[in-house]
Design a protein that fits this description.
- The protein is an alpha/beta fold.
- The chain folds into two domains: about 120 residues, Response regulator (Rossmann fold, 3-Layer(aba) Sandwich); about 100 residues, Winged helix-like DNA-binding domain superfamily/Winged helix DNA-binding domain (Arc Repressor Mutant, subunit A).
- The strands form four sheets. It has a five-stranded parallel β-sheet with strand order 2-1-3-6-7, with helices on both faces. It has a three-stranded antiparallel β-sheet with strand order 8-9-10, covered by helices on one side.
- Strand 1, helix 1 and strand 2 form a beta-alpha-beta unit.
- The chain is elongated, with a radius of gyration of 21 Å.
Length: about 230
């Protein structure tokens, strides 16, 4: 398990917060006691979470209704959702699975069971991501799992910083798409950062030099941003 993996847990009961934190030792758990707090956290840093654990009965509303409305408004990142609740009603389960949750665990539960379910789901997701981690565009080959960039026919890797790697991987996943500087900042650094447009431009400049021997280039689209194209 990657020790930096983060889980957002929306749970207002202190005893269950303690149980969940104990069960998922090794993960970074961010607890939210209300749906309002969860909305703020997910909007700000949702894409950095590996999993969302959600109770149904919360002080300021119903977790399933919140999840349904948030999905319609693209207010929840594309991460697996586990419902952990004392609500054993069959229709609640049907509704929850109908809006795309991954698992429904009824309270009380054993810590070992929660850990086993979380580990199994994240292991499956990592396996899928590993298969999807290799990208090719032009003569550039990118392996996101290994953070490796190579030119076809060469055994040497192009040495990139982690930020440079994230930028080129973002652009190459959707060749031809134009990304504004704001979009690059949000995807690479996160929306809560204070990175400026000039910082993005500096990283793009460094990338262009390092990719000079490739037939892939990063093009500037005037007043819009950047995209990758073939030379």
């Amino acid at each position: 398990m990657n020790p930096m993996e983060r889980i957002c847990c929306v749970e207002d009961a202190a005893d269950y917060q303690i149980l969940i934190e104990s069960a998922l030792r090794g993960f970074e758990i961010v607890f939210c006691s209300t749906l309002s707090e969860a909305k703020t956290v997910l909007n700000r840093e949702g894409k950095f979470f590996s999993l969302l654990i959600l109770d149904i009965s919360l002080p300021d509303g119903n977790g399933i209704r919140f999840l349904s409305e948030a999905k319609l408004q693209n207010g929840v990142p594309d991460i697996p959702v586990f419902v952990v609740t004392s609500d054993t009603d069959v229709m609640s389960k049907v509704t929850a699975f109908g809006i795309g949750i991954e698992d429904y665990i009824c309270k009380p539960f054993e810590a070992l069971e929660l850990r086993a379910r979380v580990d199994a789901k994240l292991k499956y997701i990592r396996s899928r991501q590993s298969k999807d981690s290799r990208i090719q565009f032009g003569d550039l080959n990118i392996d996101s799992a290994k953070m490796l960039v190579q030119i076809s026919g060469s055994s040497e890797r192009i040495e990139l910083t982690p930020i440079e790697f994230k930028i080129i991987a973002l652009l190459i996943r959707h060749p031809g798409n134009v990304y504004s500087r704001a979009q690059i900042i949000d995807d690479v650094w996160g929306s809560s950062t204070h990175i400026t447009d000039r910082t993005v431009d500096a990283h793009i400049s460094h990338l262009r030099k390092k990719l000079a021997d490739s037939n892939v280039e990063i093009s500037t689209v005037l007043s819009m941003g950047y995209k990758v194209a073939l030379k």
